[in-house]
Amino acid sequence: MDDFQVDVLVVGAGNAAACAALAAREQGGSVAMLEAAPQEERGGNSSYTAGAMRVVFHGVDDLAQLYDLTEEEKRDVDFGSYSADQFLDDMGRVTNYRCDPELTDILIGRSFETMKWMRSKGVRFQPSYGRQAFKVNGKYKFWGGLAVEAWGGGPGLVDLEHKAAVKAGIPIHYETAAVSLIEEDGVVRGVIARHEGRKIRIGAKAVVLACGGFESNAEMRTRYLGPTWDLAKVRGTRFNTGAGINMALAIGAKAHGNWSGGHAVGWDMNAPEFGDLEVGDNFQKHSYPLGIMVNANGVRFVDEGADFRNYTYAKYGAIVLRQPNNFAWQVFDGKIVPMLRDEYRIKRVSKVSANTIEEFAHKLEGVDPVAFLDEIKKYNAAVKQSVKFNPNIKDGRCTVGLDVNKSNWANTIDQAPFEAYQVGCGVSFTFGGVRIDPDSGQVIDSDMNAIPGLYAAGELVGGIFYFNYPGGSGLMSGAVFGRIAGTGAASGRNA
Ligand SMILES: Cc1cc2nc3c(=O)[nH]c(=O)nc-3n(C[C@H](O)[C@H](O)[C@H](O)COP(=O)(O)OP(=O)(O)OC[C@H]3O[C@@H](n4cnc5c(N)ncnc54)[C@H](O)[C@@H]3O)c2cc1C
What we know:
alpha+beta, single chain, binds flavin-adenine dinucleotide, 21 strands, 14 helices
């Protein structure tokens, strides 16, 4: 590959990048995307997702604008609704009201129209029956504000976005990693990239950085998230090494957001160092709200039922990482085993089972069995049996009088077969990044001036998520701000 020139250069080829490229192309002019990964690993973390997307909708008629529904589905399925106020409440609550109000308003306010726009580009969506709905009296009922996922999950999303890009005449250059920005007199005029070991110069009138956070960089994780984060597994791509953030900071971009925070979940203890596209997100183990988790000391350490999994899973990875030897066992009994999510039934799973609780206690590798049996006894005695168990709502079936109580979905652990799954911490993405102008996606410098020619979207934008995250918001953020940055870059490009 030789040096070349383009109007808008998008760095990255995940969801944020694809939305930026498609939006830029709508404005006219030439657009190209750079992908550090080879084609078979394309699409960054977006490819590893289940494609769940958090969107404002007011009922089934809105959803029917995003995906095809049969008359039976419209009549028989309880999709509920998810208002802008609910989305705002969720963002505020889970981020301890730190989320940037302007970015959050835009994320929420443009969620629905952005998904309609994606559909118009050829992306397809479907109801997320598998993960976000339970059957009540034979009928599906959705919970937790998430009713939409990309057709074909993350791989389907990226595939259709890349097809749309190719159709729009946007080339995607694989195995081409941007390494630095070309800046002349304070104006960004392209990037230096590496392709097959050689450096090339790609000139551009505007550059959109959409190349992820620093989750796949153990050194940066430890530097910013703290000690032991080098020991976390990476759930997704190995290519999000913080290059885009570092390039922008090197020319004076303002660091913004929760640099010491990230999205991290309970992830199979024996999962590989980085994600595996064949397994996708199935190393995660997200039925813990229905069971309990114990650490090496044999004791519970967190309220597993504090909220629906959508609002706790992204912060519980960090809590698991802080336990002795950085692991936990998720424990379920025969009453709950049939309700476990599909990801518990994959082949590559760190699982033990037993028919008696004593045998079970000795099978939990690394756990003090005597302390575990004592913990189970105390836990069982504390379950408020008078409240009926109902996984569709926060049922208030709690424990009473324990040091760490469980607020909802508390069930005794007393019925064979007993099953346990060992998890460590799997980091999904980091929250810290650069500051952008919310309306144009332009990167802001440390003097609070916009940097001419530089735009950003997706994971590397700081200020949206702090401490925690409402499930399905990452793809939505990439889509909304990708579209904004692409439009901004194409209309505000330098001469
Ligand atoms: C296992 C898993 C499951 C998830 N599930 C969901 C979900 O269901 N719903 C949801 O909303 N969010 C989910 N998330 C979060 C979601 O993946 C991210 O928020 C979102 O995909 C980020 O999109 P992005 O385009 O910013 O980054 P990415 O999709 O990661 O794209 C970054 C791109 O930049 C490329 N790149 C990196 N460095 C360079 C460079 N120097 N030069 C050129 N290219 C470069 C990468 O190869 C990649 O193509 C999940 C994350 C993981 C890891």
